[in-house]
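Hi all, long-time lurker, first post. I run a small reading group and we've been trying to get comfortable going from sequence to structure in the token notation. Rather than ask abstract questions, I figured I'd post a concrete chain and ask someone more experienced to write out its structure so we can walk through it together at our next meeting. Sequence below, copied exactly:
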Amino acid sequence: MSTLVGTPRARSSSVRVATALLALSLAGAGSAQPAVSAELQRLLGAESWQLDCQITFTGSSSGPLDGLLGPQTYSNSVTLEHTARYAIGIRSEGASLSMQKLTAGLAGASAAEAQKAMMDLIMQTDTITSWISGPPIPDENASPEQQTAQMLAYMTQPIGTAKIAVVETTRGDRLVSEAGTVFKQTTRRTRSGTHNVVGGGVQLMLELNAKTQRISFMLPHSYTSEQDAKLAEDTTTVTESPPGAAPQETREHQDVPVLPVQMSIVNASPGSGSGLIIDDAFTLVAGKISGGGTVDATYGAIPGKLVYRYTLTPH
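-- Answer (accepted) --
Happy to help. Here is the structure in token form:
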């Protein structure tokens, strides 16, 4: 997956740098931060957030194909729908994602420029709060076996569903077998199904800036399928031998394992790898923050559009 994975105690180097600089700045500065509304203060003080997201990817590709038996053409299409609910519940004051973005954007900057940019961000600590997801704190009284079981339960807990439909078609109008037989053949293979999505240890970050009224967070555009999840694969082959003869059709069916999702965001944000980082202005409606959008993405080698919707609920 294209999201960060780790333990709830893991921190990026940029966050550690920010913490050190914050301690220095607070030792020598006592200026008050701009006041924010009571409603925004409540958001800054939230212990955790619930992220509900819906991801839809639709893509296709086609072109010539150099087959072993002769020239062919191919066309592929994929439709994927993924819904999930995540808990982001380890809170800390100060920036996280914006610090990562700032660090990534400071390549080539002088030491003085980098320090000033970081200090400007660090001095907003009273109006910025971050949260990170992670497993529950292990029970100190539990045995190693019990702690392992607790972690496994967290990793494999269903958090949503995924529905996928893949269609692959190849066609050769004049193919030649090893025996020299000329024939025409079209093969259409479909893989489809719905299965559960599990947490899989994905680690998410969320940052709220009350001064600018912006929220930034990692949106899991990929997912981890439940163990032993299957898709139904159906293959239909239509052959004319020689071309123009009566077509002969064969059909095959089997259940195949779900492969890991190979999804990447085109023109991903600096510091996000191939993931999707949302940075939106927000308005609280009925106690929640909602939004969405469309980005270019690829599923394997298939280009397409990824449409996302999200709702964040503070707790």
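A couple of things your group might point at:
Helices lie at 13-28, 38-44, 97-105, 111-122, 144-156.
The first strand starts at residue 4 and ends at 5.
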